[in-house]
Amino acid sequence: MMTIHLTETANALVASDNGLLAMDESNPTCNKRFAAHGIPQTEERRRAYRELIVTSPELSECISGVILYDETIRQQLTDGTPFAKSLDALGISPGIKVDTGAKNLAGHPGEKITEGLDGLRERLAEYAQMGARFAKWRAVIAINDSLPSRACIEANAHSLARYAALCQEAGLVPVVEPEVIMDGSHSLKRCAEVTQEVLRTVFDQLCDQGVSLEAMILKPNMILPGLLCPEQPSLDEVADATVNCLLRTVPAAVPGIAFLSGGQSPELASARLRAINIGGKSRAPWALTFSFARAIQQPALELWNGNDSNVNEAQQELLHRARCNQAARQGKRETEMERVST
Ligand code: 13P
Q1: Which of 111, 124, 212, 283 qualifies as a cystine partner to 152, CB 3.0-4.6 A?
Q2: Ligand 1: centre distance to CA 86 (Å)
Q3: CATH of the domain at 221
Q4: What family is this protein classified in (predicted)?
């Protein structure tokens, strides 16, 4: 019974060419983004910014789920409505980030292990009671000449799988996010090899832990070279490498793959999502969608700049980015304003 309900939620999250909007930055990360624009780093400004996002008109036409952070799911809009309730009323599923961050992995300099399993069963029950329908856990995998280690891949895959099993037990759809990060000078090929190994290990662990693949969403990186790599590929090369890697590693039972943006510019993230759908849709058994944070929020954050008189303009920009990504899922461009050539 529970699994049917979870499968329906997972399918709804990736339906109708919609995608997910991640606004689950931890307080330190949100403060860092505010500091870069001179925005006061207070609980009230974080709340006001999150209110701007969730009250953007027509958001539900392109966004099926929004990922919240612990502080936000406990906050209310100015009119007193809790964030989760206001999203629900719009037909947008509220989600919640439940990991407690990536910490240094003992004995493995330069590598991270994501924590948060202690007490997770109790926290998930509370979030479900507050209205969350799905959850997110992000693991971070770095590449350099000698990384990642098997220790890092296995530890993170195991944690992701234990998190996912606990989510399903609590009636929440797990979004499983193993992110191979873009820092460094590695090639596209190396990112493909590492991501392939990571995803194979993650799905092995998910199966070992008894996670229902029909009732989860995978949130991976696109296959991209490091930011410092001198050779930057075309959109088609990224799309090909990404779809090939996923076809080799992700079981067809998974309903959807929702990419993170990982620090790509908003325009490039949309253009690559579009190329992935054009090149991959006919071959892919899963929906290929987005779960972006920076690539949807960043231009709106800059327009808002902490000033409430800029709310309308910022909301229009947020909606524009969301619509660009919805159009990308359909293999289209939203407007002529998109400048990235294909
Ligand atoms: P970005 O799209 O900014 O990479 O964030 C996605 C996310 O949710 C990271 O956990």
Answers
A1: 111
A2: 23
A3: 3.20.20.70
A4: Belongs to the class I fructose-bisphosphate aldolase family.
Number of folded domains in the chain? 1
Output the ligand 1 site: residues, CB below 6 A. 22, 138, 177, 260-262, 292-295
The yes-or-no answer on residue 58 being catalytic is: no
Domain that holds residue 14: 2-339
pLDDT (tens digit, 0 to 9) for every residue of the chain, 342 residues total? 578 899 999 999 999 999 999 999 999 999 999 999 999 999 999 999 999 999 999 999 999 999 999 999 999 999 999 999 999 999 999 999 999 999 999 999 999 999 999 999 999 999 999 999 999 999 999 999 999 999 999 999 999 999 999 999 999 999 999 999 999 999 999 999 999 999 999 999 999 999 999 999 999 999 999 999 999 999 999 999 999 999 999 999 999 999 999 999 999 999 999 999 999 999 999 999 999 999 999 999 999 999 999 999 999 999 999 999 999 999 998 764 454 544
In terms of DSSP H, where are the helices of the chain? 2-13, 27-35, 43-54, 70-73, 83-89, 120-129, 150-169, 188-208, 235-249, 266-280, 294-304, 311-329
- Six-digit token pair at 192? 């493909």
How many angstroms separate the alpha carbon of residue 166 from the centre of ligand 1?
22
Spatial CA neighbour of 3 closest among 206, 214, 163, 174: 214
177 is catalytic: yes
